[in-house]
């Protein structure tokens, strides 16, 4: 169950990171509220997962999932340019996250 919570909290990291960018320095209320809620849920999930997973592994997986989903969302919405190199590098991060799960 810790891995499921970790994956969900990694996805919430992408939510708060995206909301932070859209908040324009916390000057927009909607994205600012999403940021606060997303950040709280993400951190809570990470903390729960760390009860039964090693800190280093949990943190690396959490960051990897959040980073990949944040960039993928930005590319899908046109906020960031898409390139083969970026896709290959993101797949590398995904491979490393899977590797950490397999090794655990």
UniProtKB/TrEMBL annotation:
Q: Where in the cell is it found?
A: Cell membrane
The UniProt entry, under InterPro entries, shows: EmrE-like, Small_drug/metabolite_transptr, Small_multidrug_res
User: Where do the TM regions start and end?
Assistant: 33-50, 57-76, 82-103
The protein's superkingdom reads Bacteria
What family is this? Belongs to the drug/metabolite transporter (DMT) superfamily. Small multidrug resistance (SMR) (TC 2.A.7.1) family.
Main site of residence? Answer: membrane
Would you tell me the protein name for this molecule? Multidrug efflux SMR transporter
Q: Which UniProt keywords apply?
A: Cell membrane, Membrane, Transmembrane, Transmembrane helix, Transport
Q: How does it sit in the membrane?
A: Multi-pass membrane protein
């Amino acid at each position: 169950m810790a891995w499921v919570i970790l994956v969900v909290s990694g996805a919430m990291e992408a939510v708060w990171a995206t909301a932070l960018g859209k908040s324009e320095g916390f000057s927009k209320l909607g994205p600012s509220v999403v940021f606060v809620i997303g950040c709280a849920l993400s951190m809570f999930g990470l903390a729960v997962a760390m009860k039964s997973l090693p800190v280093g592994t949990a943190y690396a997986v959490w960051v990897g999932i959040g980073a990949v989903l944040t960039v993928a969302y930005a590319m899908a919405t046109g906020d960031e340019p898409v390139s083969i190199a970026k896709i290959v590098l993101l797949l590398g991060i995904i491979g490393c996250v899977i590797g950490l799960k397999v090794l655990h």
